[in-house]
Amino acid sequence: MNTSTPLPRLENLLHPDQLLDKQQLLDGLLQPQARINPKFFYDERGCELFTRICQLDEYYPTRTEATIFQQYAAEISQALASQAQWVDLGCGDCSKTRQWLEHLAPTRVIGVDIAGDFIQACLANIADGYPQLECVGVVSDFTRQLDLKKLLAESPDSPPIFFYPGSSIGNFERNAALRLLRRIRQHCGQQGQLLIGVDLVKPVAILEAAYNDAEGVTADFNRNVLEVANQLLDANFDPSAFQHSAIYDPRNSRIEMRLIASRPHTVRLGTSAVRQFQRGEYIITEHSHKYTPTGFSLLLDEAGFSQRQMWTDADHWFGVFLAEPKA
Predict the structure, then answer these.
(1) For 251, which DSSP code?
(2) What's this model's pTM, rounded to 2 decimal places?
(3) How many CB atoms neighbour CB 30 within 10 A?
């Protein structure tokens, strides 16, 4: 990166409430069925491990979505608003946004994620390659609250395109997914758009292999959340006492990721709570919902969008939906 390039502007909309986070984590672990919100996956090491997951042979969503984007880049670009503000939700390393800059000429790139330093560094790499493009980082837990209206109002003649790739919408229960889509809709006005990647229903063997890779990277990613719990709660989880598991639940059309105790394990959760895990008892760490094209179209409709188009791969494993506000 050219060191003379100024760092992108960073808007911090995240007002961390560590006490609230601790209580949420503690409450989940003390439920009869223990669970951890998947947002706790993404400390620094968790982000690094997830980047590795996306490069695995078994993890088809990344390469399948990339194939769709590559195959239909011209068609998708033609359907997107020109002179738009490109809003990358959960931007991570910004690599997917960088690929679209070869096909689009947005007036501004807004990267939204929970890790501020990471966003700024990644956006700085984009700014270095596109010095005339305004890049703004927004530190926010948009899964809890999305409020970009003041920022978007700075360019009222440039409609927003919300970009939410990678099938992350599947991590939400249906009602929570609907709430998030409605928040996005409220930011779109009448000219905005949503370009979103969605993992589709497919054979169980393919689904389960994607979350049980041979290298064990997903297992490391899953167990790392216990290290996060140790840090936040001053707990004493032994990650080696838990085995990674990911199974498909056909009734709810979702992968359920678990950490299963391989032996009895007593965990101190701070100074006030203790949880005993018996052998075979498990913690739910993530749900990843899979949709049919019709099912996701109905969800978009309920959120106030009309579906303009959907692109998919030859095997119909993954869908890229372009949605626009209902008239």
Answers:
(1) T
(2) 0.90
(3) 12
Whether 272 maps to a domain, the answer reads: no
At 45, which CATH number?
A: 3.40.50.150
Q: In whole angstroms, give the CA distance from residue 126 to residue 19.
A: 35
CB under 8 Å to 175, separation ≥6 — which residues? none
Total domains in the fold of the chain: 1
Is residue 296, in this structure, part of any structural domain at all?
A: yes
Which amino acid is residue 316, in one-letter code? H
- Quickly list DSSP for 299-326: HHHHHTEEEEEEEE-TT--EEEEEEEE-
What is the span of the domain harbouring residue 88?
1-230+291-321
Q: Is residue 34 part of a domain?
A: yes
Residue-wise pLDDT for 222-249, tens only, equals 999 999 999 999 999 999 999 999 999 9
Q: Distances in Å between the alpha carbon of 288 and those of 21, 55, 148, 160, 164?
A: 22, 18, 26, 27, 15
Let me know: does 100 contact 127? Beta carbons within 8 Å. no
Q: List pLDDT tens digits, range 163-211.
A: 999 999 999 999 999 999 999 999 999 999 999 999 999 999 999 999 9
CA distance 77 to 305: 19
Q: Which tokens go with 53?
A: 């997951």
Output b/e per residue, 178-188; b: 16+ Cβ within 10 A. Answer: eebbebbbebb
Query: Whole-angstrom Cα distance, residue 110 to residue 142?
Result: 13
